Amino acid sequence: MLAKRIISSALLIIFITLATFIDWLCALVITAFIITGLYEFFTMLEHKGINIYKYVGIGMGAIIPLSISLRFELTRSWELFFALLAMLFVTIMQFRRRSNSGAIIGISTTVFGVLYISWFLSFFIKIRYLPQGLGLFAMVLLTVKLGDIGAYLVGSRFGKTPLMPRISPKKSVEGAVGGLIFSILAALASKPLVDLSYLHLLFIGISFGALGQLGDLSESLMKRDCEIKDTGDIFPGLGGVLDVVDSLLFVGPAFYFYMSVILTNS
User: Cβ distance 116 to 61 under 8 Å?
Assistant: First the structure.
């Protein structure tokens, strides 16, 4: 399992690194991740027996990153406007069903999937398009994903105190602390990539390293509810796309807004 994790992680890192240097290719890769992640998410809900609008949700979710990539915006806050349209569209589709059973769950989970995966992950396209976008994109990926690696390595070797056994029995307090330390070191080591002070980098390592772990736990909670181990098997040893990007979902919008404020005031 460890060998599979290492090989999959290495290939994934190489692939993402190469794609990052070209902004439109980076956006295309993120869009592909979003579409696949939405498919895994809705399939997970079907496994639980929830009647959702799977392909409608995937189609709606694909529009968000594609429109950001093309820099097409209907309004200043067009994503929220689109979310409203998505909810209305899914509600109208519910009118066509013969049964009213599960209507609220079907509508809410479909819209939630679009927001949780498509909207949140799309912020990484916006990060890539920021001034210093290439460096910022690389830094936040290193900070969060090295935190994941650190949590796994430290937890596997020294983990004894359960972190949240109800949600994820294998995660430990020692692993969480180790992951946070790795995130801090990764952020500080990213200094050559971005024009930020070490104080900012320390804050980024602590706050977004912790937020990444919260994202990981959130997806674990959903998988536990749906009684599955992994959302897919695309990456041997790692699982599906959602298993790979779960720690990034909360980080994307938070980091984008944080850096927008920093860059505006600099």
Answer: no
Of 75 and 200, the structure prediction assigns the larger pLDDT to: 200
Asked if 130 and 142 touch (Cβ cutoff 8 Å), the reply is: no
pLDDT digits (tens, 9 = 90+) for 114-163: 989 999 999 999 999 988 899 999 999 999 999 998 998 999 899 899 99
Report which residue type is found at 220: S
* Residues in contact with 49: Cβ distance below 8 Å, sequence separation at least 6, in sequence order: none
What is the distance of C-alpha 118 from the center of its chain? 9
CA dihedral (9, 14, 19, 22) positive or negative: positive
Three-class secondary structure assignment of 222-238: HHHHHCCCCCCCCECCC
Give residue for tokens 């536990």. Answer: 224
Q: Residue 58's CB: how many other CB atoms inside 10 A?
A: 22
Extract the tokens encoding 188: 């500080």
The set of residues, in sequence order, having a beta carbon less than 8 Å from that of 190 and lying 6+ positions away, is 135, 138, 139, 142, 143, 201
pLDDT, one tens digit per residue, over 31-59 is 999 999 999 999 999 888 888 888 888 98
pLDDT above 50: residue 75: no
Interatomic CA distance for residues 240 and 237, integer angstroms: 9
For residue 34, what are its two tokens?
A: 């979003």
Give yes or no for a contact between 235 and 23, defined as CB atoms under 8 angstroms apart: no
Structure tokens at 257: 């807004």
pLDDT digits (tens, 9 = 90+) for 76-96: 566 667 667 777 777 776 676
Q: How far apart are alpha carbons 252 and 123 in whole angstroms?
A: 5
The CA-based angle 239-241-242, given to 5 degrees, is 90
